[in-house]
Amino acid sequence: MAANDSAETNGGTGGPAAGRRKAARYIVPVAVAGVAAATIGLVPALASTGDPDLPEITAQQLIEKIAASDTQQLSGTVKISTDLGIPSLGGLAGTFARGGGSGASDKGDSTADPQTKLTELASGTHTLRVAADGPDKQRVSILENAAEYSLIHNGGQVWAYDSGTNQVYHASEAGDSSSKRSPAPEGVPTTPKALAEQVLKAAGPTTSVTVDGTAQVAGRDAYKLLIKPKQSGSTIGSVTVAVDAKNGVPLKFTLLPSSGGKAVVDAGFTQVDFAKPAASSFTFTPPKGAEVTEADDAKAQHKADGADGLGMFPGAEGLGGGEQGAKDTKVIGEGWNAIAEISTPGAAALPSKESGDVPAEAQQFLDSLGDKVSGKFGSGTVFKTRLVNALMTDNGKVYVGAVTPDTLVKAANDAA
């Protein structure tokens, strides 16, 4: 059985503040789901069937084992269950991603667009098939009741196909085809290792890291790495990563909330094979009659429509982007309690359906998440999930982080 040795990480992987700054662009309630989806990623998980007797290992050694893993070929089946405490996103994800558009038939919109489709992983249970052959070839397929969605990266080409609507999304990479671009949108991990590394980036003096025994996942022996915030005020209670004892590949990821109850995210392999996948796994030809949307055309249309996920919110279009986004954003606190404070351009207040700024469907979703609050900062609305919360004040400030609503209100009061 593995030793329960602890280790303090030194924050050398980037630190929590850097991660929070990157996430700061998600400053409105619709993006809370996006942050959660990025946290979830497309990574694997599943049931343990025993506790194998393995050589003892320290937490530091196990972290080093993950970092040193050079496994680049695998295929398998993944099950992801997510309970963020929000209504099922379903087709609503497309509404948010399109800035309130009413369907995929609008010019530039496609149900195969990864920015739209992958947001649906932020709720419910999904079964995926995954395959990877080095940095140039990856495939992720989401299996649905009567359809399948596939995202394929092969060299300089990225294809996505929604069999339910017979729609295709295509992007070409300029320059060197050996770039390590992932087929998923930026910030969405597509391998177990990527998900574990994302969590470990938040580790530092505010984090407890221990080895919490062993498990068997998808028929393979694994160590369990337990990561817990030392601070109070975080919505994250603990993260457990089951790490393949032989090759260091994370096999299972479970995130429990500090509020108790079932896991917010439980994701892992039900079956995995580390042999080289068939080359045909990464080839794709648009089916006859399929509607093909080119990425450049879609981006141009989205920009014209203001459909960047924030376009439905007046004055929010440029938040978190480029130099202006950096200037309008600062980080309060540290570690797991880090909060991004964003100033909206022109101190724009929270939009509402009464002003005609928010589509009715989106407003219904926002109302289901929000609670009115007040304090030294004035008044505002806290939009809640079990993982990421956001406070939007009526004077145009936004506070967002994986912290409790009370922690957000205190940060706003302290900044007033």
Mean pLDDT reading: 75
Strand percent estimate: 25-35%
Strand order of the largest sheet: 1-8-9-10-11-12-2-3-4-5-6-7-13
Q: CATH homologous superfamily of the largest domain, by name?
A: Lipoprotein localisation LolA/LolB/LppX
Helix content: 10-25%
Query: What's the total number of strands?
Result: 19
Category by helix and strand content: alpha+beta
Give the SSE order as H and E letters.
EHHHEHHEEEEEHEEEEEEHHEEHEEEEH
**Gross geometry:** globular
CATH class of the largest domain: Mainly Beta
Write a concise synopsis of the structure shown:
With 416 residues, this protein is of the alpha+beta class. 21% of the residues lie in helices and 31% in strands.
Description of the structure:
- The chain is of the alpha+beta class.
- The chain folds into two domains: 6-301, outer membrane lipoprotein receptor (LolB), chain A, CATH 2.50.20.10; 309-415, TATA-Binding Protein.
- It has ten helices and 19 strands.
- It has helices spanning 15-23, 29-40, 59-68, 92-97, 114-117, 192-200, 295-305, 322-327, 360-369, 405-415, and strands spanning 6-7, 73-82, 124-133, 137-143, 148-154, 157-162, 167-172, 207-217, 220-229, 236-244, 250-257, 265-273, 291-294, 329-332, 339-343, 370-375, 378-383, 389-393, 397-401.
- The strands form two sheets. Strands 1-8-9-10-11-12-2-3-4-5-6-7-13 form a 13-stranded mixed β-sheet.
- Strand 16 (370-375) and strand 17 form a beta hairpin.
- The longest helix is centred in the N-terminal third of the chain and has 12 residues, at 29-40.
- It is globular.
- Mean pLDDT is 75; it is low at 8-49, 89-108, 175-181 and 302-325.
